[in-house]
DNA sequence: ATGGTGGCACAGCCA
């Protein structure tokens, strides 16, 4: 059995719905998780996804943030927030699909090092670690993916010296990410060969995409069972070339499992 | 370049 799971920060699903539907029908992932849908759950275009063969669950809000999961298969046991953390920002959607736990994250951006938003990001990452520790215990197959707003290493930055220790690359953020990995998760993109300067986000400003001035901040983390089953992980830059694109590109992981009894 | 572009929603915030 093969499974294809993808993540995409769409920067407004209202604007990007045609791109998402085009990409879904062309690439046919089993699961696509979205970030920054920037609309309420009620406004989520479930019928448009249903028409192309996908079920959906949304965790949205007005104006900012918002995440969703679309899937060719049943989406069960959804969780919309961390326990004991009353976060008004909709950034989490965990659900089980065909026996695999999928955790969709829109990790806070952090604005700039030292700011209130940066402190919120670090606190959020701390709560995330506790949540994922529990998810790892509860589920045999776990995939944690989304917009992490952290470039794991300098290899994930177009100009590491120029970027320095600014937000998305600062030591405390990278340390927090390493602590997530230390729970037993793998940044599965790095299990495969890729060209240098492979990125998933390019700033709209200053012709970032044309100059490949980007970062790899959209990640797919897998537990050992999923890492062992992963056959490919790659970034699809094509939608970033389309008219009126998101500033992020989709990231895809493919898995192959031996036939099992579930 | 102390900016630049894009989305939301209609002034300024967020990324």
Helix and strand layout, with pairings?
Layout: E1 2-9, H1 13-27, E2 31-35, H2 46-51, E3 55-59, E4 67-71, E5 76-79, E6 92-97, E7 100-106, H3 116-138, E8 142-147, H4 160-163, H5 171-182, E9 186-187, E10 201-202, E11 214-215, E12 218-222, H6 224-229, E13 230-235, H7 238-241, E14 251-256
Parallel strand pairs: 1-2, 7-8
Antiparallel strand pairs: 1-14, 2-4, 3-4, 5-6, 6-7, 8-12, 9-12, 10-11, 13-14
Helix pairs in contact: 3-5
The protein binds one DNA strand of 15 nucleotides through residues 11-12, 14-15, 36, 38, 62-64, 109, 111, 117, 149, 203-208, 244, 247.
Strand count, sense and barrel status of the largest sheet are: 6 strands, mixed
Report the structural category: alpha+beta
Distance between the termini: 12 Å
Shape: globular
Order of helices and strands: EHEHEEEEEHEHHEEEEHEHE
Helix content: 25-40%
- The overall pLDDT, averaged over residues, is 97
Describe the strand arrangement of the main beta sheet, using strand numbers.
3-4-2-1-14-13
Strand content: 25-35%
User: Roughly how many Å is the radius of gyration?
Assistant: 17 Å
Task: Compute the number of strand runs.
Answer: 14
Low-pLDDT segments? none
Helix segment tally? 7
């Amino acid at each position: 059995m093969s499974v294809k799971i993808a993540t995409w920060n769409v920067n407004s699903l209202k604007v990007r719905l045609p791109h998402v539907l085009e990409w879904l029908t062309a690439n046919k992932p089993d699961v696509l998780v979205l970030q920054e849908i920037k609309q309420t759950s009620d406004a989520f275009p479930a019928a448009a996804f249903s028409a192309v063969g996908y079920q959906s669950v949304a965790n949205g809000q007005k104006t900012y943030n918002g995440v969703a999961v679309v899937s060719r298969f049943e989406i069960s046991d959804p969780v919309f927030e961390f326990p004991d953390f009353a976060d008004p920002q909709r950034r989490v959607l965990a659900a089980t699909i065909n026996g695999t736990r999928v955790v969709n994250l829109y990790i806070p951006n952090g604005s700039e090092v030292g700011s209130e938003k940066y402190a919120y990001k670090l606190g959020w990452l701390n709560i995330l670690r506790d949540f994922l520790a529990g998810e790892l215990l509860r589920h045999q197959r776990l995939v944690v993916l989304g917009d992490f707003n952290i470039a794991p290493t300098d290899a994930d930055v177009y100009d590491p010296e120029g970027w320095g220790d600014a937000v998305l690359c600062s030591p405390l953020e990278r340390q927090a990410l390493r602590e997530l990995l230390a729970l037993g998760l793998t940044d599965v993109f790095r299990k495969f060969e890729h060209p240098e300067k492979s990125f998933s986000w390019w700033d709209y400003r200053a012709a970032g995409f044309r100059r490949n001035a980007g970062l790899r901040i959209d990640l797919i983390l897998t537990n050992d069972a999923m890492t062992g089953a992963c056959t490919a992980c790659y970034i699809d830059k094509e939608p970033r070339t389309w008219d009126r694109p998101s500033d992020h590109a989709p990231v895809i992981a493919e898995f192959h499992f031996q036939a099992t009894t579930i």
